[in-house]
């Protein structure tokens, strides 16, 4: 039996992003984001209710300042007392997990979406994704990019503007493009 493009995407296989079912889901998320990002001030409990209604899992105390952007939402899981500042982007065609007590600066991009390296597969309009995991009590600096397949360990720090292309060990501090370990001062 042939699998749908959504089933392929959820399994981590290559899929066609222009599939009507996926296009409709992304459009629904876009409409939800328009309401979430609307300029009218909403009380924190109403924003949390909206997040819980659309994202995969949102624990107590989560704050995401608008504007916020994502592809689907249902692949995002966020632990308690986690904070995402203005203008964060999460491309969540694969699972994205953010641990509790993590602080994410403005303009951070967490990208689970990926594209084949083979030009023929790209010409065929195929794409894929690799899960991203950010551990507990991490600090991701403003404008950082977390690329597909990366795991950031618990208690790690990612410097502002860094491009994280490989896993970051627990407790490490990384910075730069590509992000590399740096000495950490108090």
Automatic annotation (TrEMBL):
One GO CC term on file: cytosol
Domain Maltose/galactoside acetyltransferase: 6-60
Key word Zinc present: no
Keywords from the named record: Acyltransferase, Nodulation, Repeat, Transferase
CDD domains given in the database record: LbH_MAT_GAT
Role summary: Acetyltransferase implicated in the O-acetylation of Nod factors.
Name of the protein in its database record: Nodulation protein L
Source lineage: Bacteria, Pseudomonadati, Pseudomonadota, Alphaproteobacteria, Hyphomicrobiales
């Amino acid at each position: 039996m042939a699998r749908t493009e959504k089933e392929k995407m959820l399994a981590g296989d290559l899929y066609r992003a222009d599939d009507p079912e996926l296009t409709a889901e992304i459009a629904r998320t876009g409409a939800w984001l328009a309401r979430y990002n609307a300029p009218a001030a909403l009380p924190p409990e109403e924003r949390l209710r909206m997040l819980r209604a659309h994202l995969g899992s949102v624990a107590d105390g989560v704050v995401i300042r608008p504007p916020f952007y994502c592809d689907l939402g249902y692949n995002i899981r966020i632990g308690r007392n986690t904070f995402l500042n203005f203008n964060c982007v999460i491309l969540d065609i694969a699972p994205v997990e953010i641990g509790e007590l993590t602080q994410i600066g403005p303009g951070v991009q967490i990208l689970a979406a990926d594209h084949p390296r083979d030009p023929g597969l790209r010409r065929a309009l195929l794409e894929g994704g690799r899960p991203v995991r950010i551990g507990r009590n991490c600090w991701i600096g403003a404008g950082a990019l977390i690329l597909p397949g990366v795991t950031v360990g618990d208690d790690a720090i990612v410097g502002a503007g860094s491009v994280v292309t490989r896993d970051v060990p627990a407790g490490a501090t990384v910075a730069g493009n590509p992000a590399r370990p740096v000495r950490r001062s108090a």
